[in-house]
Amino acid sequence: MAFLFLAVAFRFFWIQVVEGDALRSRAFGQWTREIPVTAARGEIYDANGVLLADNAAAYAVYARPNAVKDKRRAAEVLAGLFGLDAAELYSRLLSAKASELTIARRADRLLVEQLEGSGLTGVYYARDNVRIYPHGDALSRVIGFTSSDNAGLTGLEKYYDKYLAGKNGEIAYPADLVGKEVEGEVLYVPAADGLDLRLTVDFSIQAAAEAAMQRVYAQYSPVTAQCIVLDPNSGAVLAMAEYPGYDLNDVPREDAELLNSLSRNNLVSDIYEPGSTFKIVTAAANIEEYLRGNPAAFSPQYVFNSSRTRSVDGTTIRCWSDHKNGKHSDQTLAEALANSCNPCFTDIALSLGTQTFYKYLEAFGFGKATGIDFSGEAQGMLLPAASVRACDLARIGFGQTVAVTALQLACAGAAAVNGGTYYAPRLVQEICSADGKISTKIPARAVGSPVGEEASRLLASMLEQVVASGSGGRAYIEGYRVGGKTGTAQKFEGGAIAQGKYVSSFLGFFPANDPQYLVLVIVDEPQGAYYGSIVAAPAAREVMEGIIAIKGIRPYQ
To answer: Which residues are catalytic, by number?
Structure first.
């Protein structure tokens, strides 16, 4: 008897305590029928409060077949209001096994008002927000878009979906076993609206970058024209533009291939051989090693061999051009940067050696993700140090045999000239509620120091000369100290050089003596001209001139 008593007592305890909440929830679901109360999705703002993603009021319409008294009339009224097939809807109301049918999503208020006046029983409606984007195609590859039920599918909408989505509520009506309403207390569970995002992006700078990329696209008909603007002293992304884009209010959902192409953020997700812009990293490593007393490094005054070719492992590395009067001249590191001379950077990479050079490549973030708050980031491609041959190391020195994302290169460039600190990039600076009661700030995050302050300062001054008197001359802005480096890289397809296909680029920053803005422009397969000095440098200058005008930056002299 004692055993039986304990068994029954344990069973009571199990049902009422252990499984109590789950059983009460199941019972509540049987006693009631719920109408969802949709949470408002969080809004997205730029750094200055410009609204980038908003919600418009709409409604979802539902029918409970067991509670619809006149199914034929209900089918005719609903079909007429929402453009449905009346016969099919009537059949669904008659044969539906589900207790609830969704009749329409994102219905207009005027249609709902007509529905209210129809006197139909068993038909309900609830708020159903529609995502809208006030600026259409601006930041389209960054913001992303949502599904028909407002779940984030791409971009920041996807990455921060758990914050933006909120939590839906419900209105629970008492009902009998077949779903018909009965008299009783109606329970209202309010929705918890999603949190807002405040980006690091400055919409004015974004607009300037997008306008410049659109003009480059119109002039050179490339596959894409891309631009990143960073705050080099925090890693904050001030602009991330790519043309062509698409209107976020008119997403081409019916064409999966086109949608994937237009919505992919190539600046974060695609890799390419950077070419001569990578020489910034090689120069930075050399200068830092020289200042540390490494005899393998070259001093800023060292004059490199005047030969315009180098032979490494049986392969010949050539300079892209003769520099003076048809004859390749002797040159210092600063002149090699200005002239973009491949053999000089071959000498640096080989002299530093694989172990030392790779230490800097890893410190500058190559071969791994930057950690930006965005889905689908690529890690780039860096050969394992153990398998690098001399010819591979030589080519890495001037930006071949290595593949990077545009974001990786921009972050590395920022670290090279900002005093030597590598900052993880970020797109969002704050997550907050509309009333300001909930707020999570996302601060700048320094993750390393690839080079010291003196090396960074020397490099920045050399890169200023690249713009003042070298290959980056088309990025020069009168009265402003601009530094930078051009790049022109041949594309590889199927393991071989794709004839006539190039990636033109320019990485620039200003003021050169105290960098506040870094601009990277990449033009993929421009037609006609293809040198970075001709195609990308003027576009970067246009973006920088836009920033100067927007921020009211005065000339230094």
So the answer is: 276
